[in-house]
Design goal:
By secondary structure, this protein is mainly α. 51% of the residues lie in helices and 5% in strands. A two-stranded antiparallel sheet has the order 1-2.
Length: 147
């Protein structure tokens, strides 16, 4: 998990927070809250998400959590909003390999959330059961026959 982000990605994230006093912007915080709450569901109320993100500020020789979170947001956006992340590979075919980036996005969530807290066991159990043959949004690539 520690190698999820490259130095270049963290540097790019650092550039995003540099102009805001090395803090996350309000929109970045809102995006992270949405992502965290989306994965955590009812568990989200057990964590001081907003207060933690609003209080974070990167300092020289620190751990650069704001830069890392901004880099994670860049990755979320790349995986969520590019043709390679969704159905582009199957648009032309009625039968094809339907790649889901959900597993990759979940790893990014775990990295970002894990900068502050341990991943709840309930969440890991749910993810592992869905990705190991269950059905649900966490299922990785699957062969799909379209009618």
């Amino acid at each position: 998990m520690a190698a999820l982000l490259s130095k270049e990605q963290i540097d790019a994230g650092s550039q995003l927070v540099f102009t805001t006093g090395n803090r996350l912007t309000a929109s970045q915080i809102t995006d992270l809250l949405s992502i965290f709450r989306g994965y955590l569901g009812p568990l989200a109320s057990e964590y001081p998400l907003r207060a933690t993100l609003e209080a974070e500020q990167d300092i020289p020789d620190g751990d650069f959590k704001c830069a890392k979170l901004a880099a994670c947001l860049n990755l979320f956006q790349e995986l969520q909003f590019t043709p390679a992340s969704g159905f582009a590979a199957t648009v032309a075919n009625r039968t094809g390999f339907n790649f889901s980036a959900d597993g990759e996005v979940y790893e990014i969530f775990k990295y970002a959330f894990g900068l502050y807290w341990d991943i709840p066991a309930e969440l890991e159990i749910r993810f592992n059961s869905l990705s190991s043959g269950g059905t649900g949004s966490f299922q990785q690539g699957a062969f799909v026959r379209r009618p």
